[in-house]
Amino acid sequence: MKKHIYFSVVLIISLIVSCKQESKETKEVVKEEIETVSQTAEPDKKKPLSPHTETMAMVGDAHIHIDYSSPGVRNRIIFGGLLAYDQVWQAGAHMATWLETDKDLEIDGKVLKAGKYGFFVIPNQEEWTVIFNRNWNQHGKDDYDASDDVLRIKATPKISEEIKEHLEYKINKTTETSGTISMS
Predict the structure, then answer these.
(1) What is the pLDDT of residues 82-141, one digit of tens each?
(2) Which helix (H) or strand (E) segment is 84 a member of?
(3) Which Pfam families does the record cross-reference, listed alphabetically (predicted)?
(4) Of all helices (H) and strands (E), which one includes residue 39?
(5) Tens digits of per-residue pLDDT, 100-112?
(6) Which residue from 155, 120, 159, 124 is spatially nearest to 140, judged by alpha carbons?
(7) Can you tell me the distance from the alpha carbon of 122 to that of 125, in angstroms, rounded to the nearest whole number?
(8) For residues 111, 130, 182 and 139, what is the CA-based torsion angle, rounded to 10 degrees?
(9) Which of 81, 103, 146, 178 is 20 to 30 A off residue 3, Cα-Cα?
(10) What's the CA gap between 93 and 52, in Å, rounded?
(11) Is 165 helix (H, G, I), strand (E, B) or coil?
(12) Rounded CA gap, 172 and 69, in Å?
């Protein structure tokens, strides 16, 4: 039995720029303490700008798993700026985002066979093209080839009042046998 998955794209088009100012406190530390700390302290580990993350859920008896790197807005204009409209995007950062399902899914009236797929989008102000591609293991869109597409659907972006600093996917079960996948 096929599970019904509805795909919605939540596109944030309003950009709020906020500046975070941290108060700087000066502390007097004797030279001996500084030397001790520098010898024993581990180097600061930087937080990744596009952390690797994943989301998964059961919709009916189908296990759906999305794996992606989550780029941040960081005061940039993303769609129509950093990412040009009408160009293929790997829907994440670094390696291409991938989706895996252990059951056939029905998406927008079309069947996506059980398997693992590269997940790409072509953003546009009016309508996005959502792409499932058989080449799931590729860096960004470097190896993207449209002849490997197994399913393309159209989705209308929805404006959200909620600002997301980092890309986020959600899989939501809406009934016993259907659900939605959203990208914010």
Answers:
(1) 999 999 999 999 999 999 999 999 999 999 999 999 999 999 999 999 999 999 999 999
(2) none
(3) DUF2911
(4) helix 31-40
(5) 999 999 999 999 9
(6) 120
(7) 10
(8) 110
(9) 146
(10) 9
(11) coil
(12) 20
CB 34 within 8 Å of CB 12: no
pLDDT band at 1 (very low <50, low <70, confident <90, very high): low
| Neighbouring C-beta atoms of residue 97, cutoff 10 Å | 26
The encoded tokens of residue 23 equal: 């108060």
Residue 35 has pLDDT above 60, yes or no: no
Q: Do residues 157 and 138 touch, judged by C-beta distance below 8 A? A: no
Do 171 and 7 contact (CB within 8 A), yes or no?
A: no
Structure tokens at 39: 């010898």
In one-letter notation, the amino acid at residue 117 is Y
Structure tokens at 92: 């994440």
Three-state secondary structure readout of 102-117: CCCEEECCEEECCEEE
- In this prediction, residue 14 has a pLDDT band, given cuts at 50, 70 and 90, of very low
In sequence order, which residues have a C-beta less than 8 Å from that of residue 138 and are 6 or more positions away? 95, 96, 118, 144
Counting residues of the chain whose pLDDT is more than 70, the rounded percentage is 76
pTM of the model: 0.76
DSSP state at residue 173: E
**CA angle in degrees (0–180, nearest 5) for 77-163-121:** 60
Quick check: 162 and 66 in contact, CB under 8 A?
A: no
